[in-house]
Every structure is written in C-alpha cells, then in structure tokens.
Amino acid sequence: ILNYDIMARFRRRTCIILLLFILFICSIMMALKTLRPDRAGFGDPFGLGLLPELQQRAVLLDSKQNSLNRVQADTVTRVSNFHSIAVNTMKASMSPVNKLEDELSSPNYNFHIFYYSWFGNPQFDGKYIHWNHPLLPHWDPKIANNYPKGRHNPPEDIGANFYPELGSYSSKDPSVIEAHMKQMRSASTGVIVLSWYPPGMADENGEPTDDLVPVILDYAHKYNLKVTFHIEPYKDRDDRSMYHNVKYIIDKYGGHPAFYRHKTSTGRLLPMFYVYDSYVTIPEIWANLLTVSGSQTIRNTPYDALFIALLVEERHKHDIHRSGFDGMYTYFATNGFSYGSSHHNWASLKAFCDSNNLMFIPSVGPGYIDTSIRPWNNHNTRNRVNGKYYETAFSAALLVRPEIISITSFNEWHEGTQIEKAVPKRTGQVVYLDYKPHKPSVYLELTQKWSEKYRKEQEQWLM
After folding, report:
1. Burial 220-255 (b: 16+ CB within 10 A, else e)
2. Keyword Transmembrane: yes or no (predicted)?
3. Alpha carbons 355 and 347: distance in angstroms, whole number
4. CA 360, CA 341: separation in Å to the nearest integer?
C-alpha cells in the first residue's frame, strides 16, 4: 500500500510538470507569433521590423517598385495614392520606440531647423524638381552677360555646390523622409520648420507640396519631433489670405501629435508660424490680422498663434512691433549679409525684443554658397572652415540667451546652408564641395554638441 501511494503521487507530479511544460511551450509559440509582422507571408523575413538595416533595404525595394508603377500613372492618381502608400511603408518600418529613444539624442524643442520638401526625381515625381534649378541671371544685364545661363542636368549635375549622400532624391520617397527625420533627431533638434505654400501653390521652380504634410507629420511623430510651418511669400499674401491659411493649417493638422505648440510665459500653448519675407507687406496690413483691434484679427480666436517675422534691416524691428508680430528671426546664414544676420547686432536686437515683449530667434548656419544657381554671388560666400564658422554662430547666439535658436538649414542645398549628410563627388567638369576631412555627419554632430551646451547654459540662466 505504501509503495502504491508513492507511485500515485509520482505519477500525479509527473503529469502536472508535463502539463506545465506544454503550457509554457504554447505561451512561447503565441508570443513569437505576435512578433511576426501582420503583413508577413511566405518568404517575408521573420522579425523584419526588429532588424532596422534589413528592414530599410526591404522598404527601399518596395518603395522603388511602387514608384515605377506611379510614374506610369497620371499625376492625379499619384497624388491621391501617395499618403496611404507612405503611411503603410512607415507602419512596416516602425522600430520599437524604446530602441529609438536609446539610440538617439533627446530632442531639444528650443532648436528649430528649416526644412524643404520641394525636391523631386523621375522615379517618384515623373521628372526632376529643384535639382535642375536654373542659373539665375544678375539684374544688371552687363554683369549677367559674363556668366553662364541655362539650367542644371541631374543626377550628375545638380543645382548645389555640395552633393547629398542620398543623391538627387525625391522629398516624397518614404525612405528619404525617414532618413531625414533620423538625421534631425540625431542632431538633437526638436522642431522642424517646414517650408509651406497653400494647396495648389508653389515656388516658381517647384510643385505644390501640401499633400506631403501628413506624411511628414507621421514620420516626425515616430522620431518624437514636432513640426511647425514656414509660410512662404505666396501670391497675393495679405491679412485675409493669411487668416484663411492659418485656419486651414490648424483645422487640418492641429490635431496631429507632431503639430508644434509653444508654451508661452503666461502658460498658453500656441501654434507658431514663421513668416518669410514678412517685410514685403506693410505693417498696417499685418496689424489688421495680428492686433486685437484689427479688422481681420486672429487674436483671442481659436486660431490665435505666435507669428514670427523675418528681420533683415534694422528699421524692420519697429515695423515688426507695429504690425503685431510676436517675435522676429534672422534666417540668413551669412554673417554680415544683412543687419539681422550680422552676429554683432544680435545683442541690441535681443534688448529691443525684451523691452517690447517680443521673442528674438537668431538663425545660425554652417556656411553659405549659392554660386551653383547665382554664379555672380561669390561675395556672399561664407566658408565653413571645417565647422568653425558654424560653432562661431552658435557661440554668438548663446551669448544673447535666446529662448529659441533656429538653424538655417537642414537641406537648403541651393544656398549651401545644409547640415544634411553630403559626400565627395566629381563628375565631368564639376567637382562638388564636401565636408572633408570630417565625415558626412559632422554638422549633425556639431548641432548635437551645441544643443547639449545650450541646454546646460539655459539651466544656469534660469537659476
């Protein structure tokens, strides 16, 4: 009887252990199944989303095949299908958020960077856009006759003095958008200042890009970046059209988690709009929109925001104040080109802003060269001096203790102000400038360095 009881207990224990083991195996299988992408089928690499490099190559192949199909379709079909294609690509390429946060510097939402989404190539757009920029003639015909005319012929000959690591890319290519977001995040910038024209409008060398905004917002959110808008001087821009367009932007994009809102000293969270070439509109027109008593006022409405004007000449500071703007920025990356872009004037501009309750946002840049599109403009070239010019600009900006610093630019290739990765290239008669002896990411790394320095110094200012 004793032996029988022992054997019975042993069998029960063995059955329980066996049952627990089977349950453990089942749970492991279920967990592995949840890691497999929903879209995976036979031949689709297991765990694709967990291998960023493999995933990036696969996404690039997918996007290239999609682009070939789109080029054969008409323009309307291409535009209407783009957002869904890009969103699906983004979902397929999502890396674990925690992994991204571990790998990249934390975003600095007081570092704003100007970004252009106006580039195109035949693969995604049916033709080259902006890379084939024309050579702009000098306004004096006698001088103009001394310089070449025509336009650039991509992909070997582009409208830039440097050559991008990504080649003559399309701003619609999801893999390009993702690479840009990762570069901006690695530089510890926090807010993308997106060049913007109203729907159906564009600069004279480009195509409308408003349809791309939702995709840029989605990718920015993936990298914990925010997006604000750089309103360009579109045709017939005035108080009424600005009211309409600000309303359009806030209604359409204001609910997106990547839409930027700035916390004011009074605790309000408000959208922010940079207004390029604001000085071409007289202060009385702006005052209609930007002052409480204006006939077209946007103040104290659901569409109220912070409006930042471009300051070029010293007298503009009084016009900006009279117009009802909330602040000013200097944009140009050429120290000495204008009153606003001259570093030695920033202290007096900051003092003026402080005394008139305005924000002063200095713009720093790594250098300037636009002779690929303005061959007569050598006198405004600013040599990068292997990064020293950029660091000097940051140092000058920090001296005035600004609430925000803007960076000109991430990818304004025509004017040579980009911090995007560039590579050495020689083709035919063209030898492009490069970042040597440093690597292609040097200006991203310098931006990250000064972002951290700014954060530390800001802590001291607030003490």
Report:
1. bbbbbbbbbbbbbebeebebeebbebbeebbeebee
2. yes
3. 12
4. 12
Task: State CA 401 to chain mean position distance.
Answer: 24
Residue 285, pLDDT > 90, answer yes
Residue pLDDT, tens place only, 355-388? 999 999 999 999 999 999 999 999 999 999 999 9
Contact between residue 239 and residue 296 where contact means Cβ atoms under 8 Å apart = yes
Query: Measured in Å, how far apart are the chain's first and last C-alpha atoms?
Result: 83
d(CA 281, CA 309): 11
Buried b (16+ CB within 10 A) or exposed e, 97-111: eeebeeebbebbbbb
- Domain for residue 134, yes or no? yes
Side-chain half-sphere of 455: how many Cα atoms within 13 Å? 15
The two structure tokens encoding residue 301: 């409405």
Q: Is residue 279 part of a domain?
A: yes
Whether 102 maps to a domain, the answer reads no
pTM for this entry: 0.80
ω before 402 within 30° of 0 (cis)?
Answer: no
329 within 8 A of 362, measured Cβ to Cβ: yes
Predicted local confidence at residue 462, as pLDDT: 77
pLDDT of 80 higher than 80: no
55/58 Cα distance (integer angstroms) = 5
For residue 108, tell me if it sits in a domain: no
State residue 3's pLDDT score: 60
By residue range, what is the domain housing residue 253?
113-462
How many domains would you assign to the chain?
A: 1
CATH number at residue 386: 3.20.20.80
The rounded distance, in Å, linking the Cα atoms of 184 and 163 is 18
Question: How many angstroms separate the CA atoms of 451 and 456, rounded?
Answer: 9
Burial (CB < 10 A; 0-12, 13-18, 19+), residue 122, is middle
Token pair for 187 = 């530089």
* Residues facing residue 262 across a β-bridge: 270
- The torsion defined by the Cα of 221, 423, 159 and 118, in degrees rounded to 10, comes to -10
Token pair of 214 as six digits: 């939702």
Strands (E), 82-150: 108-115
Return d(Cα 201, Cα 125) in angstroms, integer.
16
Q: Which residues contact 178 (CB under 8 A, 6 or more apart)?
A: 56, 59, 90, 93, 219, 222
Residue 456, token pair as written in the block: 């530390």
Residue with tokens 């409008």: 201
Pairing of strands 430-431, 426-427: antiparallel
